[in-house]
Write a structure and sequence with these properties.
CATH superfamily of chain A: B-lactam Antibiotic, Isopenicillin N Synthase, Chain
Helix content of chain A: 10-25%
Largest sheet of chain A: 7 strands, antiparallel
Distance between the termini of chain A: 6 Å
CATH topology of chain A: Jelly Rolls
CATH architecture of chain A: Sandwich
Structural class of chain A: alpha+beta
Oligomer: homodimer
Number of strands of chain A: 13
Strand order of the largest sheet of chain A: 1-2-11-8-13-6-3
Shape of chain A: globular
Strand content of chain A: 25-35%
Radius of gyration of chain A: 16 Å
Largest interface: A-B, 26 and 26 residues
Order of helices and strands of chain A: EEHEEEHEEEEEEEE
């Protein structure tokens, strides 16, 4: 787990580590990522209500590459099968971003959260890596049973969130929150 | 402030007091309150998107008593003017509920929060008293700058929330959250 620097989130003032959030230092160019995202969304719009998503990684031979992985886990193929860069993204900054990670990624998606909405409180099967592309101080993750709040900063790094714990994400800002989210073989324990 | 028992919310395990939440023991009958609410909503529907509200207290002589107080503070009369029971509620359990408080209330409203929505992060002018009528473990207040999460239990008591701190409320459940909310001359400090 040497890729992950464990950070103290809500409990910072107590010096305790919640085990909920880790950081992978990537040094991505957030402006370039935002520009690549704008370009992409002008060609492929976000189509879902609330959980608006677009696939960065796809399954080989998919007939619906942009959206096939964008449903609930129970309704799609095993997450690890979405492991190839969407062919249309070759040569874009997304290719560089995916390659920058120190571990292989799967089911990488662009994920938008609309103003004044939140996800149903849930657990995921695995932890998730998040890179904030466009966000504010008012769009945190809330670990409901742990009473923890964590904001992913748009600082060019990836944050490993232990989303196997009961959680939601909310957007209390008036602007869209845009994240890159990916799966990876990383256990959120040291 | 002898009416308020200060409770430890998110920091319970540390034994510290956040100063964000207090409780007023009222011993209300939540089932009776839920039934009175059902009766009321069958006659006067909730009309707003997201912040669906209905006025329990009104201004004398209002021509739109049910909804006049249900806009943002900047768009309505001073909150303290909404201090009379809505005439149609005389003889209902709502009359008893308002009278049960040890301090005068104003701008008491029924407030619904739809599944998978949250309010814009904001501060209120004053603290607020909340009585949960219908809620779940997945519909907390989030004090965004304080990294605190608090769920109002549907236990027949009123909770004084220091909503002058930056906050939102979210509903990550699949059911409607229904609260009674009121203003009162209570300073959320001891």
């Amino acid at each position: 787990m040497s890729h992950v620097n464990w950070v103290v989130s809500a409990r910072e003032e107590n010096g305790s580590d919640t085990g909920l959030v880790g950081r992978i230092d990537l040094g991505l160019d957030v402006d370039e990522l935002a520009k690549a995202t704008d370009d992409l969304l002008s060609r492929h719009p976000l189509i879902f209500d609330q959980t608006q998503q677009l696939a960065i990684q796809v399954r080989p031979g998919s007939t619906d590459p942009w959206y096939e992985s964008c449903y609930q886990e129970k309704d799609i193929a095993p997450e690890r099968e979405y492991a190839e860069l969407n062919p249309e993204l070759k040569g874009t900054y997304f290719e560089e971003v995916v390659a920058r990670f120190p571990v292989p990624l799967f089911r990488t998606r662009l994920l938008a959260l609309t103003s004044r909405t939140c996800y149903s409180v849930h657990r995921d099967e695995t932890s998730r890596l998040h890179v904030a592309i466009q966000t504010t101080e008012h769009a945190p993750f809330v670990f409901v049973e742990r009473n923890e709040v964590f904001r992913v900063p748009a600082d060019g790094n990836a944050y490993l969130l232990n989303t196997t714990e009961v959680h939601t994400a909310m957007n209390g800002a008036r602007t869209l929150r845009l994240h890159l989210v990916a799966g990876a073989e990383l256990d959120p324990s040291r």
